[in-house]
Amino acid sequence: MRTQTLTAIAAALLALLLPAAAADTEKKTADTEKKAAQPEKPAAGSESKAGETMTDEQKTLYALGLAISKNLSVFNLSPAELELVKAGLTDGVMKRETKVDLNVFGPKISELAKARNEASAAAEKKASEACLAKAAADKGAVKTDSGLIMMEIKPGATLIFEVELLEIMK
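and the corresponding structure tokens:
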């Protein structure tokens, strides 16, 4: 499982830096491309945030970054933390000297993911408790010993609130 986690994280990091690496490569070869043939025209409506058009390959690389970002979502990275991740990815992809020993800090990635996931779950639980308290205070709400909150909306139908469950039962 540790290997799978590290592989997923490495893939996520790679996706973050590929667009930057592609941009560096494009910048270096821009003059050569201008002298050679006309560059591939991007499809209509394919503009980046800066208003520049993107080729299908650039869009695919961007999509790779989006896919990798899903693997990083458990970390709830701040902008400053994301910059550190990008720096590590850049150093790894560009085969630069690393600033930390991956054999030492690699195993700590899973620990960080677990801690961040637990913090996120605690925040969700706290938010759901406020929702449950509000539901329990509604007129006609009945709270059972198990914590289930029921409210009859119309005869024959019951609205049920549970920690992370909202379901209408008929």
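(Above: one complete record from the training split.) Residues 127-169 form one domain.
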